[in-house]
Amino acid sequence: MPSRALVLDANILIRPVLGRRVRRLLEAHVDNISFFIPETAYGEAEEHLAALVPGRGGDPAKALISLRSMATLGTVVSQDLYGDFESEARRR
User: What is the predicted pLDDT for the residue at 17?
Assistant: First the structure.
């Protein structure tokens, strides 16, 4: 397991679906960094993509497939796992 970890938020999940740069960065570092995706961030990304993609002339169904593909680069974690640390993280 990589010694570094990074939590991905909804914005970072959306960017690889809409472009290429962030996708290449995540794919380049997946062997060195453990990516964690809070389930709430994943849900937000799905919701926002549904609104963003049609405005850019894209297919929402294809965007969701791409989002699911990006999620395989990390581990989706439930709030049960990280909820106890939320208040401390917000203080930082």
Answer: 93
Q: Measured between alpha carbons, how far is 90 from 50 in angstroms, rounded to an integer?
A: 28
- Residue for token digits 């395989």? 72
Residue 63 · residue 35 · CB < 8 Å = no
Backbone angles phi, psi at 41, to 5 degrees: -65, -40
CA 15 to the chain's CA centroid: 9
The answer to whether 16 and 66 have CB atoms below 8 angstroms apart is: yes
How high is the pLDDT of residue 84?
77
Secondary structure (H, E, C), 46-75: HHHHHHHHHHCCCCHHHHHHHHHHHHCCCE
Can you tell me the mean pLDDT for 8-23?
Answer: 93
